[in-house]
Amino acid sequence: MPIIFGIVVSLIPVKKERKGNAGIDFAHLSERAMLYVVFTFGEMVIAIAEYFDGELNFNSIYFSLMAFLIVVGLFLSYGTFYDKIIDREQENNGLFYMLLHIFIIFAQNSITSSLEFMRDGNMKLLPKEAFLIGSLFTFFVFLFLTRRYSRTVCRPTAKFYMQMILIAISFVVLMIIFRDNMCVNITISAGYIWIVYSVIYWMSRKERHVSS
Hints:
By secondary structure, this protein is mainly alpha-helical. The chain has helices at about 1-10, 25-50, 60-85, 95-115, 125-145, 160-175, 180-210. Helix 2 packs antiparallel against helix 3 (about 60-85).
């Protein structure tokens, strides 16, 4: 119910406040949204600990390392958007920004569950892979939508979206090809996330250089 209420309220037209008389401090609101995301990343790291089964074998160590790299890559992607791209000093009620974070946090929790399913041999491959791919795509789609609140020099470009689409298609194709090998799947997932992060990072560096 709180999520539904938040979505409905965010869609209600709100009369703009006069300049200098904004009712909401967007910088403060964005910081609070960021804290919820960071807390959820912490919960993801805690969940990864379940990969350790009490024995020092290659499988548990490998999956734990790849899962940790996935979480770190997602964290850095979000952190780059928050710190380098989002204009936190703008005058905005931030309702849509909060709505986007509802789905970002939902995607984080889904990614955590999908990582736990990867080592479950009782689950069928198709639902398991579809859940992981869908969760990762949900995270990045709603993260990219926060560019609505970006600085003037950080507006979305066709080149950026084309790169994201091509990377996503390559990711899905590779996941399908190696669908029978979960060790390869989790490596491909980690690689996908770090490639996306590298594009985001270089985009932020370039646009920061332009703004300076």
